[in-house]
């Protein structure tokens, strides 16, 4: 019987997963998630691609935005290669393009993600924040999502496939505490807004504790709950097998440094869905109420056809 990893082991594993290996000039490789099954989590590819871009830029410049397109689903169990193009290096800004690819059985390579990241030398400037952090319950008053997942799995019983059950209950390095009911929690249509607190399940290891890694972890976590926001008005869920979906793109703007092992509030909304797609936005705040990052994503979202 395989022992359940501790929270600290899960976070150490995440830090290792997001620590890419340099293979050649501007070529890095990201290792696969241990025990991963099926399709690679999009947040992993985003975070590893950002790490590749960050590795090619001097420490005097920090990432302030990234824009990515998911081209194909990555396959678990295989490494991912990240090739970097240095498009621009100015005094204040720099720009990098990264292509993430996986090798096929015949030795050819297939791109799975394109990412462009912009970097800037930190400087003082005019400041304002238009929308304050919502006044919501704090994380200490909420039940961890993993407990809610166990309760949901027990209630669904045989209605939940073994694969969905394993995915639903898999230990995660990111701890989440949800204020609202997400798409997998109920089947009642509701407004397309959600609020969730998140942080790593344990402190980031001291030997990996850098602002670049914290940005990568926030990037990784930003792919949780986001696409599901556009499913809320329809009362449908991927977890119950009612939808077919995939992320199409992902954009993040980093407004200030933040620690991924301290509670962050993820506020998401979905102003539109149609044409087999859903558009979602996110804002990430620290506990002091400062806006840390803004996120946007469009995803494919289709009702699953009933089997004949």
How would you describe this structure to a colleague?
Strands 1, 2, 3, 4, 5, 6, 7, 8, 9, 10, 11, 12 and 13 form a 13-stranded antiparallel sheet that branches. The chain contains five helices and 13 strands. The model has no long low-confidence stretch (mean pLDDT 92). The protein is of the alpha+beta class. α2 packs antiparallel against α5. 18% of the residues lie in helices and 35% in strands. The longest helix has 14 residues, at 42-55.
**What share of the residues lie within helices?**
10-25%
The structure class reads alpha+beta
Structure annotation, total helices: 5
Instruction: Note the overall shape.
Output: globular
Low-confidence stretches: none
Give the termini separation: 39 Å
Please write out the topology.
Layout: H1 7-17, E1 21-24, E2 27-30, H2 42-55, E3 62-70, E4 80-89, E5 93-103, E6 109-120, H3 145-156, H4 162-169, E7 174-178, E8 193-200, H5 211-221, E9 243-247, E10 249-254, E11 264-274, E12 277-286, E13 291-303
Antiparallel strand pairs: 1-2, 2-4, 3-6, 3-10, 4-5, 5-6, 7-8, 8-11, 9-13, 10-13, 11-12, 12-13
Helix pairs in contact: 2-5
């Amino acid at each position: 019987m395989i022992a359940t990893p501790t929270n600290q082991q899960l976070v150490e594993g995440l830090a290792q997963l997001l620590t890419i290996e340099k293979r050649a000039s501007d070529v890095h490789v990201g290792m696969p998630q241990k025990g991963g099954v099926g399709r690679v989590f999009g947040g992993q590819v985003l975070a590893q691609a950002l790490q590749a871009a960050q590795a090619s830029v001097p420490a005097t410049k920090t990432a302030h935005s990234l824009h990515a397109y998911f081209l194909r689903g990555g396959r678990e169990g295989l490494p991912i290669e990240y090739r970097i193009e240095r498009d621009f290096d100015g005094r204040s800004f720099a720009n990098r393009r990264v292509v993430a690819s996986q090798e096929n059985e015949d030795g050819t390579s297939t791109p799975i993600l394109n990412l462009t990241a912009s970097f800037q030398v930190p400087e003082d400037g005019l400041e304002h924040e238009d929308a304050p952090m919502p006044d919501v319950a704090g994380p200490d008053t909420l039940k961890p999502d993993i407990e809610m997942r166990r309760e949901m799995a027990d209630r669904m019983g045989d209605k939940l496939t073994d694969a969905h059950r394993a995915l639903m209950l898999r230990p995660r390095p990111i701890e989440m505490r949800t204020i609202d009911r997400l798409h997998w929690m109920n089947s009642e249509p509701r407004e397309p807004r959600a609020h969730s607190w998140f942080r790593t399940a344990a402190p980031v290891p001291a030997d990996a504790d850098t602002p670049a890694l914290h940005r990568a972890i926030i990037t990784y976590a930003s792919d949780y709950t986001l696409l599901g926001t556009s499913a809320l008005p329809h009362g449908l869920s991927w977890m119950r097998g009612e939808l077919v979906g995939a992320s199409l793109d992902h954009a993040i703007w980093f407004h200030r440094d933040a620690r991924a092992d301290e509670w962050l509030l993820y506020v998401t909304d979905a102003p539109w869905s149609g044409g087999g797609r859903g558009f979602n936005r996110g804002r990430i705040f620290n506990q002091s109420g400062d806006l840390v990052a803004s996120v946007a994503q469009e995803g494919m979202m289709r009702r699953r056809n009933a089997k004949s």
